[in-house]
Design goal:
With 75 residues, this protein is α+β, with helices and mostly antiparallel strands. The chain has a domain of 50 residues. It contains 1 helix and 5 strands; from the N terminus they run βαββββ. 16% of the residues are buried.
C-alpha cells in the first residue's frame, strides 16, 4: 500500500477483517476528527496505521483519500 490512496479507517478495517486484532481511535493531529489505528496486540502494544506521506496541516474537513504509507509507530 506504499504510496497508494486510502485513509486510516479503510486501512484499520481492512487489517481487522483480515488479521483480527483491535481498532483504536485517537484525535487526529490534522484536526478535530478521529484517527484510526490497528493493533495486532495490546500487551505489548503492536500497532500500524495509515498516515499521509507529507505532513498534514489543520483543515476544517479531512481529505477522503490521500497518498500515504503504513507506519508502525504513533509519534
Amino acid at each position: 500500500m506504499l504510496g497508494g490512496r486510502s485513509n486510516c479507517l479503510i486501512f484499520a478495517l481492512g487489517r481487522f477483517f483480515t488479521r483480527g486484532g483491535y481498532i483504536l481511535a485517537r484525535r487526529s493531529r490534522w484536526g478535530w476528527w478521529p484517527h484510526f489505528l490497528w493493533a495486532s496486540s495490546l500487551h505489548p502494544l503492536r500497532l500500524e496505521h495509515f498516515s499521509p506521506i507529507q505532513g498534514g496541516r489543520p483543515r476544517l474537513l479531512p481529505p477522503l483519500l490521500f497518498k500515504g504509507h503504513i507506519l508502525d509507530k504513533d509519534q
